[in-house]
Write a structure and sequence with these properties.
Elements lengths: L1 H19 L7 E5 L10 E5 L18 E5 L7 H8 L5 E5 L12 E6 L2 H11 L3 E2 L2 E2 L1 E4 L7 H15 L1 E6 L7 H9 L4 E5 L12 E5 L1 H11 L3 E2 L2 E2 L1 E4 L15
Antiparallel strand pairs: 1-2, 3-5, 3-8, 4-5, 6-7, 9-11, 9-14, 10-11, 12-13
Helix pairs in contact: 3-4
Length: 252
């Protein structure tokens, strides 16, 4: 009996040593000792599993494409907003809060576009444009850093496509879009001409004209101080909102 136990211990020692010998190691090893004893007749298996792969890092949150639209007419319907915004991309959602008593618009809305570039394009085009007889204001509904990349791409493209934007002040209220376009067309191709209106649809006495860079430079030089419909025009390069022109500002 003592010999049997000694033999069994010897076999177990040999098996253990072989498990660490070169050529015998593996990620999953099984040692088996078979004897006449029930205690040593079962398999002993030790498994070494590879560690689980680390979960992939979360991707950067998707760009939020919601636009705030203010100063809209109380009579504005969802279809009016959709018609204005879908010219610049795919409109995925419109939220138009209503007054509980009148069931009409509360004067603002939220429009969601399908991607960042469409959002930037829609904001630039719709801001200070007219919807249902009112000049509306469109802006990002989230912090500016959320839309910075899309806006930069759009502005670069718009600069290439639209050229320069010109501010025209001191307009006669009777001056029409056609009159103004004709005046600037003498110096180049007019790509856009916009005359903002107030809440009641009355002209506000100024306009924005878009031309190619060369034509815009000529138009500013020739039309600033010129007379149109009995008024002396103020013509210069349009500046970003909040930035004021210097008294002797030159084209740059």
């Amino acid at each position: 009996m003592n010999l049997d136990r000694a033999f069994i211990l010897l076999l177990a020692s040999v098996s253990a040593v072989s498990g660490f010998a070169p050529g015998f190691a593996s990620s999953r090893q099984t040692s088996r000792v078979v004897t006449g004893s029930t205690l040593f007749s079962e398999e002993a298996a030790v498994s070494v599993e590879a560690p689980a792969a680390a979960p992939a890092a979360d991707e950067t949150p998707a760009f939020d494409t919601q636009i705030y639209v203010g100063n809209i007419s109380f009579d504005t319907a969802e279809s009016d907003l959709r018609a204005a915004f879908q010219k610049h991309g795919t409109v995925t959602k419109i939220s138009l809060p209503l007054n509980r008593e009148t069931m009409k618009s509360r004067g603002f809305a939220f429009v969601t576009m399908s991607n960042a570039e469409e959002t930037a394009a829609a904001i630039a085009a719709v801001n200070e444009s007219e919807i249902s007889g009112r000049t509306v204001y469109a802006s990002e509904s989230l912090p500016k850093e959320k839309v910075a990349e899309g806006k930069k791409k759009y502005q670069a493209k718009k600069q290439r496509d639209d050229g320069a934007k010109i501010y025209v002040g001191n307009l006669n209220f009777a001056t029409t879009q056609e009159d103004l376009t004709a005046a600037f067309a003498a110096y180049g191709t007019v790509k856009d001409c916009f005359l903002p209106t107030d809440y009641d649809g009355n002209k506000r006495g100024f306009a924005f004209v878009s031309m190619d860079e060369e034509g815009a430079a000529k138009a500013i030089e020739e039309l600033n101080g010129a007379n149109l419909d009995g008024r002396t025009l103020t013509v210069n390069k349009s500046l970003p909102k909040g930035q004021k022109a210097s008294p002797k500002r030159k084209w740059d």
